[in-house]
Amino acid sequence: MVKKWIENREVKPESEYEEAKRQFEMAMGKPFITLRIEIPAGFDDFHAEFRNLEKDTQFHEEIKDLVKKRLLLDSRRKKSST
Fold first, then answer.
1. Helix, strand, coil: what percent of the chain each, to 5?
2. Residue-level pLDDT at 11
3. Within 13 Å and on the Cβ side, how many CA atoms surround 8?
4. DSSP secondary-structure letter at 41?
5. 38 SS3 class
6. 8 A C-beta contact, residue 20 and residue 12
7. Whole-number Å distance between alpha carbons of 82 and 74
8. Which of 37, 49, 72, 80 is 20 to 30 A away from residue 57, measured at CA?
9. How confident is the model at residue 12 (pLDDT cuts 50, 70, 90)?
10. Contact call for residues 54 and 60 (beta carbons, < 8 A)
11. How many other CB atoms sit within 10 Å of the CB of residue 69?
12. What is the rounded distance in angstroms from the CA atom of residue 33 to the CA atom of residue 22?
């Protein structure tokens, strides 16, 4: 699979390349999701601060905690409904 991914890298359109790269990363490591988050309405004055969140490790940890809480909550809901 790696050989195929490397050989076909220049031939594929960008979107197909990105999808192949994503599949490779998912197969080699932990599953992940990619979210596109737009700045909330009314927060245009915080453009620089918003952009800095992308590299903010504390923000990433807060998001990981939010994901954990959400997954646990969803798991509990499934158990209680069965």
1. 70, 0, 30
2. 54
3. 15
4. T
5. coil
6. yes
7. 13
8. 72
9. low
10. no
11. 10
12. 10
